Amino acid sequence: MSITALKALAQLIISNVETIESTCQSKGTEFPSLDDLFEPSVLDAHPAILGASRQIVAAAAQIIATVRPPMELLSEHATGMYSTAALAFINSNDVVDVIQLNGTRGMHSKEIGQKIGVDGSKVDRVLRYLATRHIFREVRPNVFVNNKVSSLLLKSKPWDELVADPSSKYAGALGASAIGHTTEEGFMGAPYIPQFLKNPGQYQSPFNMSIKDTTNIFAWYEQAENLWRGRRFVVGMRGAGERFPPEIFTSAIDWKGLPQGSTVVDVGANVGTVTLPLAKAFPHLHFILQDLDHAISDAKVFWQDRFPEALSERRVEFQVHDFFTPMPVKADVYFLRLILHDWPQEEGIKILKHIRAAAKPTSILIIFEMIVLHACPETSKFAAQSPVPPAPPPLLANYGLGFGGFVTMADMQMLNLLGGRERTIEEFEELGRESGWKLETVKPGPISAFIYTPE
Ligand SMILES: C[S@@+](CC[C@H](N)C(=O)[O-])C[C@H]1O[C@@H](n2cnc3c(N)ncnc32)[C@H](O)[C@@H]1O
């Protein structure tokens, strides 16, 4: 049986590699090599490539789980903190940028150590641990070069991207910011997860337990000594947001059909990565970005940089607004992207109730979030609205690491940082029901659109 399953998994890998090959041929391009630096490619959002990658990742992980000795596999996961610590070390010491000074020649760990003020004989161990897991490449003994994965952490990118804080080394560095946030703030809370699950006490999250303070992480970011972390989060969040194709947002509802001058509120907008493509595509709409103080300051810089006309024509407004207080705008459309996953049920309901209290009978609410799929076949009435096609056997129903990997990882991160959660479609329906909103439509995708009307 296990050989039959292994062969089926190997076959899935081969047939999907062939799909990648034929798609590359039809596009006249090569599939990016693991050995090169990361470059955005036309293939990144290509549906055939995304579908093939999903099956290959799912099948490869399942083969590894089948053939790797179970104790070794368990130990790999049990020592996951070394991956976090290794990434935190190289990211905070700019090791990727240092190695890149020598380009494809690579750099000896002793030289890397000298440049960052760390014993080189320790640096090589960290880099080898990562190179063994395909982050960096060891080209000769103790000599390392960047690859497709490590190069995402380069900070010395041209500063044409938004700069939340031009004096920060994280200013345009989307990957380094997101990974810095996770390997530092995330790493603080993670050890407290078991204790929190058993007995949260006065705390809303494991992160709060780690700082021994009930201030939520967003309010904590507003404190003077943590402001730089908050700004790094803004840059990382933009990176996380920009990986979704803008069509997800521009096709969520019939924006064109909204009357001239309709008001659209981006609740918890951060710098407004979703509003930007909407404002470009639908000049007849008026947009209001709401967030906390530092995010709104960064949003103003972002828009001045990316779309200054929207500011001079007053098509975009900025509002410092706490979404746990009454919504000040009676809008035609409210949307929230990656907001509700931050919060436990009670807080999520509070946010939506404030919006409901301000809404008109004709207002529309759109929630953009990822969907959690069970690792077994779905049984709910929403099973047909899956963001992914049915997984071929013997893959897990949620494609394991090929799809469920990212959502479950994000779910643990939300639990850790804010006591939040990623949700199933049923849970989104329930969230609406408990806050006065009726779920009308779900548009499944890499990030899904849940469309509600007032109940
Ligand atoms: C996960 S980010 C999502 C940002 C944005 N919607 C996006 O998709 O790029 C969460 C956002 O919620 C904002 N936020 C947190 N607490 C808030 C509050 N009480 N009122 C308003 N915004 C808040 C944060 O500043 C942050 O920008």
What would you call the structural class?
Answer: alpha/beta
| Broad CATH class of the largest domain | Alpha Beta
Count of DSSP-assigned helices: 19
Which ions and ligands are bound to the chains? S-adenosylmethionine
Order of helices and strands: HHHHHEHHEEHHHHHHEHEHHEEHEHHEE
CATH architecture of the largest domain: 3-Layer(aba) Sandwich
Morphology call? globular
- Tell me how many strands there are: 10
Task: Output mean pLDDT.
Answer: 94
* N-to-C span: 52 Å
Helix content: 40-55%
Ranges where pLDDT stays below 50 over 5 or more residues in a row are none
What descriptors fit this protein?
455 residues, alpha/beta, 4 domains, 7-stranded mixed β-sheet, 3-stranded antiparallel β-sheet, binds S-adenosylmethionine, methyltransferase, SAM-dependent_MTases_sf, S-adenosyl-L-methionine
